[in-house]
Amino acid sequence: MASLSFEGETHGEIVLKVRRWLASLDESPEGSLTAVEAIEQGAELTKDALRIIAAAA
User: Fold this and answer.
1) In this structure, are residues 15 and 39 in contact, taking their beta carbons and an 8 Å threshold?
2) Distance (Å, rounded) from C-alpha 43 to C-alpha 40?
């Protein structure tokens, strides 16, 4: 049985990750992000990196 899970510290983070995953299922061509999507993805990467750094400290 397949499973899928999302992790986040807040409900909003989880919703954002689910929406991003659902959007990735669309048939839009790879590499075509809107400016807002690019900023959101960059922010998520930054948050994830800071969590990793904090956990290692």
Assistant:
1) no
2) 5
pLDDT tens digits for range 2-46: 888 888 888 988 888 888 888 777 655 666 778 888 888 888 889
What is the C-alpha to C-alpha distance for residues 29 and 32, in angstroms, rounded to an integer?
A: 6
**Best CA proximity match to 48, nearest among 4, 5, 7:** 7
The answer to whether the Cα torsion of 26, 38, 14, 11 is positive or negative is: negative
Lookup: tokens for 9: 């510290």
**23 vs 51: CA distance, rounded Å:** 25
pTM over 0.85, yes/no: no
Q: Collapsing DSSP states into helix, strand and coil, what is residue 28?
A: coil
